[in-house]
Design a protein that fits this description.
The protein is mainly beta. The protein has no helices and 21 strands.
């Protein structure tokens, strides 16, 4: 199905596969219970659109506009997300989970991501600022140049996660779970020296 028809605003129970769109205007669309497989969206405008109960599998989103866009009960699996400012989304309609997804140059600011899942993801040059990540799942996730600033990481699970740099004095980390050997990275912002005997 082609999703750029100007007379179609609502899609429900639709299946989109191998669709590639570049610089398309997709504002104020509604997608309910839809599946996206191997789709590519570059420089598209999804502002004021709504995705509910949708799954994205092996899809790519690159530099798209998501101003006031809602992602409610959505799943991103094996996707590639580049240059997205998730803080521009509709904060009341953002309940999404991510698995085995590459998240690069993305920003999560002033968001409630409590109990959201980022399992086996790969973060690069991304940022979490003033974000509620209580009980979030970062199991087996790789971090590269990704910052956590003034975040609530209470009871977040970083089991077998790698490469994170989190300042304990700038984030609430009570009850958060970490595993060796990367847990020693929590000490690096303190400027101390760790010796192996």
């Amino acid at each position: 199905m082609h999703m750029t028809a100007p007379d179609i605003e609502d899609y429900e129970d639709d299946y989109f596969e191998k669709i590639t769109l570049d610089k398309e205007q997709l504002k104020s669309k509604s997608f309910i219970d839809c599946q996206f497989v191997q789709c590519r969206f570059s420089y598209c405008d999804f502002s004021y659109s709504s995705f509910r109960n949708c799954t994205f599998t092996n899809c790519e989103f690159s530099i798209i506009k998501i101003n006031s866009t809602g992602f409610s009960n959505c799943e991103f699996k094996e996707c590639r997300l580049q240059g997205l400012n998730f803080s521009e989304c509709n904060s009341y309609q953002f309940y999404s989970d991510f698995e085995e997804t590459m998240i690069g140059h993305c920003y999560f600011g002033d968001m409630d991501l409590k109990e959201r899942s980022f399992r086996k993801c790969r973060f690069k040059s991304s940022e979490f600022t003033k974000t509620n990540l209580k009980k979030a799942d970062f199991t087996e996730t790789d971090f590269n140049e990704t910052m956590f600033s003034n975040c609530n990481l209470e009871k977040a699970d970083f089991s077998n996660a790698r490469g994170y740099t989190i300042h304990p004095g700038e984030n609430n980390m009570k009850g958060a779970v970490f595993t060796y050997p990367d847990v020693v990275n929590l000490l690096s912002p303190l400027g101390i020296i760790i010796k192996n005997d």
